[in-house]
């Protein structure tokens, strides 16, 4: 098995030849390298629940207060409930703006199409599901040669 995410295909991650597998989940870092043992997630955030709490505060104020109360947290997972829900992007961006420097994992309904955008708002790790025969395309890391808006990268 290769450790280069972009060469990884579903057939290569099968542990027993001939097993029937519909999909496989992998974790990769912001450079696209597969993380074989990503470590234990300290906290998982559901963006809808997080944003709904203390509705009298701005999202940035909620994140600052929440982060200050957490202590030593190294790995936060933010779940993307569905492809069209942008709240995970907002929470991730606000966490980075508030000074969070640990691993920020994106999981849920994410695809290669949003890999680049998730990375730009501060995600460092991605939990992707590959379909049979699907490989990760290197172009997802930098689909554009330049940009006109600043971001965390």
Residue windows where pLDDT falls under 50 for at least 5 positions: 1-21
Q: Decide which structural class fits the backbone.
A: alpha/beta
Q: How many helices in DSSP terms?
A: 5
Tell me, briefly, the overall form.
globular
Radius of gyration: 17 Å
Secondary structure: number of strands: 5
Report on the biggest sheet: 5 strands, mixed
Distance between the termini: 31 Å
Number of domain modules = 1
Our estimate of the beta-strand percent is 15-25%
The helix-strand sequence is HEEHHEHEHE
Question: How are the strands of the biggest sheet laid out side by side?
Answer: 1-5-4-3-2
Helix fraction, binned, reads 25-40%
Q: What is the average of the pLDDT values?
A: 78
List keywords for this structure.
alpha/beta; globular; disordered N terminus; five-stranded mixed beta sheet; 5 strands; 153 residues; 27% helix
Could you explain how this protein is built, in words?
- There is one protein chain.
- Mean pLDDT is about 80; it is low at about 1-20.
- This protein has one domain (about 5-140).
- Helices cover about 25% and strands about 20% of the residues.
- It is globular and about 45 Å long.
- The chain is an alpha/beta fold and about 150 residues long.
- A 5-stranded mixed sheet has the order 1-5-4-3-2.
């Amino acid at each position: 098995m290769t450790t280069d995410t972009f060469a990884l295909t579903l057939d290569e991650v099968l542990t027993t030849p001939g097993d029937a597998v519909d999909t496989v989940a992998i974790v990769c870092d912001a450079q696209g390298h597969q993380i074989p043992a990503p470590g234990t997630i300290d906290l998982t955030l559901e963006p809808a629940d997080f944003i709904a709490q203390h509705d009298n505060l701005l999202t940035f104020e909620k994140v600052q207060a929440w982060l200050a109360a957490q202590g030593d947290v190294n790995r936060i997972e933010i779940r993307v409930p569905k492809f069209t829900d942008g709240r995970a992007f907002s929470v991730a961006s606000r966490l980075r703006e508030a000074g969070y420097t640990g691993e920020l994992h994106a999981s849920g309904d994410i695809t290669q199409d949003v890999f680049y955008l998730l990375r730009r708002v501060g995600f460092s790790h991605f939990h992707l599901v590959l379909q049979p025969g699907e490989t990760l395309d290197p172009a997802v890391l930098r689909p554009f040669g330049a940009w006109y808006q600043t971001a965390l990268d």
